[in-house]
Fold this sequence. Notes:
Mean pLDDT of chain A: 93
Largest interface: A-B, 22 and 29 residues
Order of helices and strands of chain B: EEHEEEHEEHEHHHHEHEHEEHH
Helix content of chain B: 25-40%
Structural class of chain B: alpha/beta
Oligomer: heterodimer
Strand order of the largest sheet of chain B: 8-9-10-5-11-12
Amino acid sequence: MSTVTYQRRRATNAFMLGLCAVSAFLAVGVLLLILGFVLAKGISSLNIDLFTKMPVPEGEPGGGVANSIVGSLITIGLAAVIGIPVGIGAGIFLSEYAGQRLGDVIRFTADVLTGVPSIVIGIFVYGLVVLRMGNFSALAAGIALAIIMLPIVARSSEEMLRLVPHSQREAALALGISRWRTILSVVIPVAQRGLVTGALLAIARAAGETAPLLFTALGNRFMSLSVTGGPIDALPLRIYRYATGPYSEQQQQAWAASFVLVLTVFIISLAARLLLRRR
Amino acid sequence: MAVGFHTQRQNPIMGYEMHSGRGPQAPISEADALAGGVVVRRLDAWYGSFQALRGVDLLVAPNRITAVIGPSGCGKSTLIRCLNRMHEVVPRARVTGEVLLRGEDIYAPGVDAVVVRRRVGMVFQKPNPFPTMSVFDNVAAGLRLNGFMVRRGQTVETVEKSLRQAALWDEVKDKLSRPATELSGGQQQRLCIARALAVEPEVVLMDEPCSALDPVATLKIEELMRALAKEYTIVIVTHNMQQAARVSVHTAVMMMAEDRAGEMIEFGPTEEIFTKPRDKRTEDYITGRFG
């Protein structure tokens, strides 16, 4: 090989490696940029009032987004209660019971569901729940978010259950323990940590969703604790309303609320990772 | 090699140590196997389209150790997995033929595999204690998870009895609440034996139980097997021909050819198999001329 060719190859290699490194830094850098940017914009409104006070009328200074935080907790809580058990159940079916063909069909469907735009899920739940109930509600929002969580929980649970060695199942079955008892008492305890991780990641994903809430929770500037009784607020909705409004006071609060939201999602994701790594 | 043996002699031709403390070397009676042991008749087994057993016949004498030997891939494990219906746990696996446990066909319609497995316990090649459970809970698992409504005191008794039977009690009695994974490999395997014994099976199947263990742990398990044979019918699959010669009363030899696996070529009293095999392939295999 001639020296020239060799040097050209080395240069190409270095160039490509550089491109990849830049891409990698961009991916990480974007998150840091977002966190930093949002923090810088919102820091002036990031105070205890944000968490404890209710929204004040437009143009007035002060106030907070306590109702949105409570609303988010309620809707995400409902979504978790609905989505996680069903998702884990689907994961168990995929990993323990489904045959090759049926399993592939379900897996493919779940993957498509993951890709369905969340606004479509919002419209779907609007038609299915909101119109029938006659009003917007935390329940409708919970169902919409649960649908978003479902495929994530199902696929991650399946993966985690598959990691449990087959010898564990055989050990239990050979003792004359029934199939469902084997799964419940032997397989799931081994996979427990992984199942929790999957559920946390799904919660983190649902926590930031805005579009499906527009058609289900609607938003509410007052405190609502009702599950079925009417519109409820949520952080992403409040951010959307404040950020698109003309009042600088509210825009400030939108930045601050965004920071809270991003940080929460970040912390949940981090907790999920740490949980998986321990032991 | 001779640790713990009371009497032994070297076979002049094959060089295997034959252990004479194994009880009567009487030929196998079908009536005995029907009454208290296991009778296998014309057993065929498949994994999908691959036939792993071909017309296997076997008599397992009650309260004796029966060894199944043969080269890798010949169907030994498949055979014993058919004796407690674990074969069917593998997707697309099928069985035809009869396996009579005390005279009743475990493959008869209406027989529940779960019930069969309570009567026929199994110990696997690699120790597989439940990692999330303590030593105590591992042994108690079969009782608890089977939904047997047992008093706490009774569970404690059964666990101690099973651990004593598995010659493990003295080593673990002070760490019953420790995770089972803290035990050594040999201890874990005896724990798995205790776990199998706790549900009081009639037959104990052992699928190469010593292949993951060192020689000292292996000898312990072998001594244990001889002790257990007083109360249990034992079938052991082993790659180790010395082990078969040391512990078993009866030996079945399985073989495979290039395009077919799962044939039982010879079955008889262990001494005969190791001293005057009838089949040339058996002789080649036990003298190490095979593969």
